[in-house]
């Protein structure tokens, strides 16, 4: 069983960090729930700004929902500071998908379908200048149409649809996904120093970056608690760490992050 846990944690780390086709060193921290069938996931997580982040580096936090049994298909959404893509060091809301071969970020190609009157559009800037803020995201496979829907808000009880990934886009996720995960990621070019993750604090501090309201989601869009024995932490201990998963506190939560400074 221990071998399976370690293998799964490594797999989740690879899945979490192999996004958007960028060559570089990815490092991620968070929790995954795998080896079962899932209709979706949700969480509330902190949003941070890194106004001086240079090109060749990425900082962000995300929810991933995907299939690893038959493919590397997945969808994900969250926030990121990504100068190479956006041409600035502002914090952006983003969505992403891959079918294991092709991939796309935001609305750069066909795939994610935005809906009218959405509260936000993929690629929009998330303002962080007024102090700490957070977003709540929910991704789930709607039982009515079978598509993978994304909801957004700043209040878990008031989420509004942003759009959806059509079920035809992800043939191995026609029924359910086989894993979900929640966490933060950073990327830096080979040989350069890695940036801070979250707000740069270790998860031992209650002021560190956090994920709250961490839940799985059924096909009706209702959240429910993950099972503890199916949760696995992934982290890069020398630069970033994942805190203890706390059931029943702030709707299930964990802290994550670290100061960075790694070169390998």
Fold and architecture overview:
It is a single chain. Strand 12 and strand 13 form a beta hairpin. The strands form two sheets. Strands 2, 7, 8, 9, 10, 12, 13, 15 and 16 form a nine-stranded antiparallel sheet that branches. This protein has a seven-stranded antiparallel sheet with strand order 6-5-4-3-11-1-14. The chain is mainly β and 264 residues long. Helices cover 8% and strands 41% of the residues. It is globular. The longest helix has 16 residues, at 2-17. It starts with a helix and ends in a 7-residue tail after the last strand.
**What composes the largest sheet?**
9 strands, antiparallel
**Order of H and E elements:** HEEEEHEEEEEEEEEEEE
Protein structure class: mainly beta
Low-confidence stretches: 1-7
Beta fraction of the residues? Answer: 35-45%
Number of strands: 16
Shape, principal axes of CA atoms? globular
What is the radius of gyration?
17 Å
What is the distance, rounded to the nearest whole angstrom, between the alpha carbons of the first and last residues?
Answer: 29 Å
Continuous helix count: 2
